[in-house]
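Q: Hi! First time doing this. I have a protein sequence and I read that you can turn it into a structure. Is that right? Here it is:
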Amino acid sequence: MAISELDLPTGVVAHSLADAKRMAEVMADGVAKVLDYAVHTHGIASLAVSGGRSPIPFFEALSRRELDWSRVQVTLADERWVPPSDEASNEALVRRYLLQGPAAQAQFLGLYSPADTLAEAARHAAEVLTGLAQPIDVLVLGMGEDGHTASLFPGSDNLAHALRDDCPEPCVPMRAPSAPHERLSLSYPILASARTQYLAIQGLAKLDTLRDALSADALQMPIRAFIHSPLEIYWCP
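A: Yes, that's right. Below is the predicted 3D structure, encoded as structure tokens:
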């Protein structure tokens, strides 16, 4: 099956790239263009990215793009509730691969805090996010083979609340089926209001997941909540 064969909603655009390196470069070009436009139009640009290993080539490519990085804010779509010194930290990943060279001038707004409880950490992250230029200019999401995105996992007790159109919290405590279980995720309203939204996936298994999500309920496959305009999907084998 090719991504062009999917019956995507109106306004959702799909791109098929030859490999991960090419996809990273094309996405970096597009994201840099949007961020540059936001800087020149609004004086500041905001970018929210996802963690995991797959985005590393994209992070490295974007870090090489010429931008007024001092006017760019970077945050995370989600975070594992572990300190940045932990190998599982998304913040550590972004600092290691994106906030390098000229991109080190960007302002990073992290979600993690060493709070007493996950709920308290989510409240602290919400306070941090008051400093983020909103709506977010560029959101880059990934997707798991179970249909989760950010840290919005099927079966999580807080999922229905986090996916509410009117969810009042910008950041919500979530639990994942895999370790580290305790997570923080931006909620649906702050994610779905992003001006430009990308979904990056690799491999035939993820393509099958995306196909299944098109006819699924968002509580079973949370990525379904985000498959609407404006969304650009980038895929490579």
